[in-house]
Amino acid sequence: MEERYTVKKYNANEKLSEEQIADLKEILRLSPSSINSQPWKFTFVSDLDTKKQLAEASFFNAPKVLDCDTVVVFSAINNVDLFEKQINVTLPEGSIGYYNDFLKPLPSQQLHAWFEKQTYLAIGVLLSACAEMGIDSTPMEGIVPEQYNAILGEDNYNSLVAVAIGVRSEEDRNHVSTTPKSRRPLDEVVMAV
Ligand SMILES: Cc1cc2nc3c(=O)[nH]c(=O)nc-3n(C[C@H](O)[C@H](O)[C@H](O)COP(=O)(O)O)c2cc1C
């Protein structure tokens, strides 16, 4: 956690290995979620033409999207019928009962917020895994979700956030050696009682 940081400039000539990408896919698949609901999809985009389209929907993040090796798009399910069909097949009776009793009755907005919370957890999993594996990364909320959905041809899932992964440029000024970590003090954010 001391060494990982948000990369602002990638080396477009350096690629991740197929094995690294395969490991990250499996790590994301294994992400935890409440009642093991897994209301998500993770889309790995390495194809340059698609990255160019995503870059146009990524504001100031465009250069990162273009020069990184792969953009991982995190999407939460937005089709409740589809979600219910999925959990009816994959989850044990107790978990389906929990969903029916506590989540299904919520106002639609809160249910969708719950899907999104589960999906956001997986970003932390990916960023931590990248740190451990020595892979550079950039979490990006600066994207246009509707345009991402259209580019990826997604109807039942909504893009929330993306993570660029790859190899940083030597010129990246955000590296911890030039831009030291800035965080609130430990005793303000972590309590022991
Ligand atoms: C959910 C999320 C969204 C973020 N969106 C962006 C973004 O769109 N572009 C960007 O350059 N950095 C983005 N960041 C990076 C944060 O600004 C960064 O994590 C924070 O300043 C701490 O710095 P560090 O990651 O280098 O330790 C995002 C981070 C998170 C966790």
What do you see in this structure?
- The protein has a single domain (18-166), classed as NADH Oxidase (3-Layer(aba) Sandwich).
- With 193 residues, it is α+β, with helices and mostly antiparallel strands.
- It has helices at residues 18-29, 48-55, 62-67, 80-90, 93-103, 108-133, 145-152, 186-189, and strands at residues 40-45, 70-77, 136-140, 157-166.
- The mean pLDDT is 98.
- α1 (18-29) runs antiparallel to α6 (108-133).
- The protein contains 8 helices and 4 strands; from the N terminus they run αβααβαααβαβα.
- It has a 4-stranded antiparallel sheet, with helices on both faces.
- The structure holds flavin mononucleotide.
- Flavin mononucleotide binds next to β3.
Give the key terms.
4 strands, 8 helices, 193 residues, single chain, binds flavin mononucleotide, 15% strand, alpha+beta
The run of helices and strands is HEHHEHHHEHEH
CATH homologous superfamily identity: NADH Oxidase
Q: Count of helical segments? A: 8
* Major β-sheet annotation: 4 strands, antiparallel
Cross-sheet strand order for the largest sheet: 1-2-4-3
CATH architecture: 3-Layer(aba) Sandwich
Give the helix proportion (percent range).
Answer: 40-55%
The structural domain count equals 1
CATH class assignment: Alpha Beta
Shape: globular
Number of E-state strands = 4
Q: Span between N and C termini?
A: 25 Å
The poorly predicted ranges are none
Rounded average pLDDT:
98
Q: Assign the CATH topology.
A: NADH Oxidase
Q: In what range is the share of β-strand residues?
A: 15-25%
